[in-house]
């Protein structure tokens, strides 16, 4: 345990930030799973809406520093590719 006053405050801040970041990451993972579930079902309209919400959460996490901006961009790109693949398979079939 810290003994200095500033170290004690830093510990309190770290605990608060850690719990906030963990909650945000959990909600982000849940949103990604919702999107992937709609892609798996093959529902294009729902998947488009879910992708929009997922991209918003990814952008927000990048601006808050929860995720690195390149990590957020990479995930957005991969999720968009999945949606585009779904659209092309629906058009062919």
Describe this structure in words.
- The chain has 93 residues and is mainly alpha-helical.
- The chain has 3 helices and no strands.
- It has helices at 5-41, 44-64, 69-92.
- It is elongated, with a radius of gyration of 18 Å.
Total of helices: 3
> Which structural class is indicated by helix and strand composition?
mainly alpha
Over the alpha carbons, how many angstroms does the gyration radius reach? Answer: 18 Å
End-to-end CA span? 63 Å
The total domain count is: 1
Give the proportion of residues in helices. over 70%
Query: What is the mean pLDDT?
Result: 96
Supply the CATH architecture. Up-down Bundle
- Beta fraction of the residues? under 5%
CATH topology grouping: Methane Monooxygenase Hydroxylase, Chain G, domain 1
Main beta-sheet annotation: none
- The level-1 CATH class: Mainly Alpha
Bulk shape: elongated
By oligomeric state, this entry counts as single chain
The count of strands amounts to 0
CATH superfamily: Ribosomal protein S20
Write the layout of secondary structure elements.
Elements: H1 5-41, H2 44-64, H3 69-92
Helix pairs in contact: 1-2, 1-3, 2-3
Summarize the structure.
Helix content is 88%, strand content 0%. It has 93 residues and is mostly helical.
Descriptive labels:
single chain; mainly alpha; elongated
